[in-house]
Structures are given as C-alpha cells and as structure tokens.
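Researcher: Please predict.
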Amino acid sequence: MNANTRSGPLQDLKVIEICSTIAGPACTRLLADFGADVIKIEPPEGDPVRQMGQHLGDVSLYAASILRNKRSIALDLKTAEGRELAAELIARADIVVENNRPGVMERLGLGYEAMSARNPGLVMVRISGYGQDGPYSERPGYGAICEAVGGVRHMTGDPDRPPARVALATTDYLSSVYAAFGAMAAIHARQATGKGQVVDVALYEAAFTQMEPIVPAHDKLGVVPQREGSNLPSMAPNSSYPTADGGFVLIAANSQPTWRRLVALMQMPELLTDPRFETIQARGRPENMKAIDQIIADWTRGFDGNTLEHMLRAAEVPTSRVYTIADIYADPHFAARHMLQQVPHPTLGHTTQMGVVPRLSGTPGAVHRSGPDLGADGADILSDELQLSEARQQALIQSGAVKVPSTT
C-alpha cells in the first residue's frame, strides 16, 4: 500500500507499531484509517491478535479488521539484525506505538532515549497497564485487571451480584483513543518545538477517567456508589425491559412530560397520582424504582420488540430495542452512515468491517485494505523503506531475522 492508495489528513505521518493484542493495534488502526502509513512489526509467530476472535479457515476475522490499512513485517527482535532493522525503521518514523511492559523497549535498544538521539522529532506512544513509572509500573496489566483497579468493575453489573465483566474490550479501546489523541497532541507540539516526546497511556487511568463524577462526590460527600444494574442511578423509568419475543427494549422516560406520555401509552392514568411515582425524585428512590420497573416490565412483555419500539416512538418516548449484531446488519441507519463496509480480502473475497470513526467532512478517513497476512509486506519494506539490496534481503531471511510468507 503506497501513499497514492492512502487517503486522509495523516498521509504525511509514518508510524511504526510494535504492539500486540488490542489497545496498541486499535490505536494504530485509528491512525491508519486517517491515512498514516503504519508499518506493523510482528514477531515471527505473529501478533497473538491473529489467534483471537472467530476464524474462517485459517483467517482471523478480528485481525482482518484491527490490522486493516497497515503493512506487516515479521522481525525477530531477539536477533541483533532484527533489532537493527527495527531501529532503522523507527529512525525514519514520526511516531512509534508500543504496548510492552515498561523496560522491554529499553532492553531491546529501542527505548525513547536511544531512538530520540537518532530521531529528535520522534513521538513514542507507550501503552501499558499502569504507566511507565510508579510502584505498580512493573505489573502486567490487561484491560480487565485495570478495570478492577480503576474502579470500573465495582460499578458494573447488578447490585445483588458480584461485579460483572463487560463483554467487550472497553478499556483497551478507550485507551487506544487516548493514545491516538496523545499522539496527535504531541505531533502538534512538535510543529513549534521540532522535538518529539513520550505519550504515556496507562490502561487503569483510561478506565479511571470514566469515574469522573464519582471522584469529587467521594471527596466532598464520602459517597461510595454501588452497582445499579441496567438502571440509571436515581432516575426511573430508565432501564431495559423484556419483550414478548425474548428481547429487550430500553425505555428512558426521564422527564415529567415524557413520563406522562409513557403512562398515557400504557393506559394506566392512576400512576400519575400514585405518590410513589408523582415526581422524578420519588421515582428515583430504590424501592420505588423497583416497583415502577416491575409495572413497566409486565406491560412490555405483551408486545414484540419491533411493535413496542414503534409504539414508543410514536408516543415520543425515547427508546430502542437492545440491538444484537444481526439487528445492526439489518438497520438502515448503520447502512446510511457506512458503518458496515465490505473490504476486499485476498482469501475470503471480502470481510465486512465497522466503518471509520469519527467522520470528517473535509478530509475523511477510509478503509483501503484488510489486515495483511503475517509479514506480507516485508520484502517491500526492506527494499522501499530501507533500500536494501536483494542479496541483503535474502541474507536476512536466511538468518531468520526476517520472516516472509511462504510462496509454496
């Protein structure tokens, strides 16, 4: 993939990725979506993300998406030659993104101090569980662990059950956005100073930022909030309610006018004069929340999800069915905003992937290619980026410093 193929506002940036699994690759996928030339350095066995998610044959459908718009070179960084090739690529880059444990890059000779001496404008984005310093910095940190440390796991789930796991890699993806934002802020600062810097992103801190309203409340009021389940704290009705076809519908009747419209639709005018439900404050009391939720659930069970959703919308009550991925594929709004894109794939014909977020009106991002096979771009990178002769390339391949896909 050359510069003529790429499009977007970041076409002038070259990014080296030395990452595995989710947060780092998601960060560079975001940069690549907006035109950055991302070269992913993988070990000879490949990024573990290639083994994650669902597969069709030998193809990881997850890797096809999270590695999209990138180029792949497989280098053995345990070899001196592999490390030197990585250093040469970093020396030519604007940004390097890594999510190893603190100290690993330094042991490889690829730390910021060494690399910035060769490339003073280099921005190094470092994603780790607990950050580059502090007493926990050496601990391994995965998204789920860091959600627990950041207070998020305590807030997740139903109040009468143990803290629940969010079924998606929320903290990893939130961290990836912070990392991409930090990279762009550092590149902007470089325009004035000519110098790069380190962007230190800790997963536990990214998770902790979701606790923003809780932090000052604990300081001033000593509040330690508990799990609320599917309800909005102190606000009812605002929850997921069952439908006749086995699904759920989210109803958010937060204001008094909306509450009155919902009651009219339910044909239960007596609720308006019930002292438990007369005001927002009254409905927000825990015992009253349970009561109104039970009344609404008994009503919603009488309708299938589509019918109920249309009824609520016609009554101007904010609502949505709780979508499955099948619902998303059938939804016209996702289609209209190009959030499901068919991307060519050399083996499968195409894969359908999520669209580009955010949308820019003047210089939008785009998806140009599915995630490449391991090392698929190695030969081009060695010849085009590093200007190595064919003989030198073959020697590196023979030594095991570089791995290229088999042609047999």
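Model: The chain has a mean pLDDT of 95.
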